[in-house]
Write a structure and sequence with these properties.
Mean pLDDT: 79
Order of helices and strands: HHHHHHHHHHHHHHHH
Largest sheet: none
Radius of gyration: 24 Å
Strand content: under 5%
Low-confidence stretches: 1-41
Number of helices: 16
Helix content: over 70%
Structural class: mainly alpha
Length: 338
């Protein structure tokens, strides 16, 4: 076979060269191009088992945030707390990309991508999230965030050509939708102050929508940006935006004289954001990873997040409606991921 591929007429090739084209015959160029494309696809994929393990690690890290944020908000205003957290997260990652990313690797397009992701994935998402956490319990927040894969599936259907809805997805979204209704009913919106819980849930859903758009932007930049560099810079820029927003809304933040527990939780939140987002962006940059399918692993977040809230927050305890909603959401995403 190799003899057939590389056998050619010397006269024909000499004619091509003498005609002023100064290039190899076309039949010679096709094979190397195909080989390069196949090699690139092979290098830019990840084994499903490895992707599952990394996705679970990221989700377990995120699930610990609800308790830490709820406790931290007792000592700090939401936007300043979020801003300081994410600026620290960005700085933590600098040593892991410094020297690996050079100025020539950063184009105007890359800068636009970083700012877009910072606005969607940090500023808007966590602006909604932190404000919502002042309105709802940590357990309810974790369950609503855990339903975000359903939101991701809908958004990805319209925004990604290769990530369309199908029958199973629609059934799962219906189940999860009923689950969210149970969670909302569990907050007793008819009682005094109940409307604030519903407002918090709406903010969390809005956060899920903008987060999905951020994931789509990252998934489309599979080859252009180092995932740790992208995480570090976008999360720092998003944190800076949140911090500047806090100044006119919340005044000068208090950063000294707070309990040691607050600084410990702030450090943990900064670390988990740096680690979880780096893992997530790393997975999204593989050719065989789809936004909606990766986000389905977030069903672990309500399971661990709500459980931790009920264990560590004395004012929170499970109720039947919330447990039913949690079960419906988890079963819907599990069914999709079978």
């Amino acid at each position: 076979m190799s003899l057939l591929i590389f056998h050619h007429s010397a006269d024909a090739d000499r004619d091509v060269y003498s005609a002023g084209k100064h290039q190899l015959p076309q039949r010679w160029a096709v094979l190397p191009k195909n080989i390069n494309r196949i090699t690139h696809l092979k290098q830019n994929t990840i084994a499903p088992a490895a992707a599952a393990v990394w996705a679970i690690v990221a989700c377990v890290l995120w699930s610990t945030a609800f308790v830490a944020i709820k406790v931290g908000l007792a000592h700090s205003k939401p936007f300043s707390f979020a801003g300081i957290r994410f600026m620290l997260s960005g700085l933590i990652l600098v040593p892991f990309w410094l020297g690996k990313v050079h100025r020539r690797d950063i184009s105007i397009h890359s800068f636009k991508v970083i700012i877009t992701v910072a606005v969607l994935q940090t500023f808007l998402l966590y602006g909604f999230f932190y404000f919502a956490m002042t309105l709802v319990s940590g357990a309810v927040a974790s369950i609503i965030v855990g339903a975000s894969p359903i939101v991701s599936a809908v958004v990805a259907h319209f925004a990604c050509r290769d990530d369309k809805l199908h029958k199973t997805k629609v059934i799962c979204m219906g189940l999860a939708g009923f689950g969210i209704v149970f969670v909302v009913l569990g907050t007793q919106p008819w009682r005094v102050g109940g409307i604030m819980d519903v407002a918090g849930i709406c903010l969390l859903v809005c956060g899920s929508v903008v987060s999905t758009f951020g994931n789509i932007v990252v998934s489309k930049e599979k080859k252009n940006l180092h995932p740790v560099f992208l995480t570090s810079v976008q999360i720092f820029c998003g944190g800076l935006m949140l911090f500047f927003l806090s100044l006119p809304l919340e005044g000068q933040p208090e950063v000294t004289g707070l309990p040691v527990r607050f600084y410990f939780l702030l450090g943990w939140l900064s670390f988990l954001s740096a680690a979880a987002f780096s893992i997530w962006f790393y997975l999204l940059q593989h050719e065989n990873i789809k936004v909606s399918e990766l986000n389905m692993w977030k069903f672990l977040i309500p399971v661990f997040g709500a459980t931790l809230s009920w264990i560590f927050l004395a004012e929170e305890s499970p109720d039947l409606l919330t447990l039913c909603g949690m079960a419906l959401v988890a079963s819907a995403v599990w069914k999709f991921n079978r």
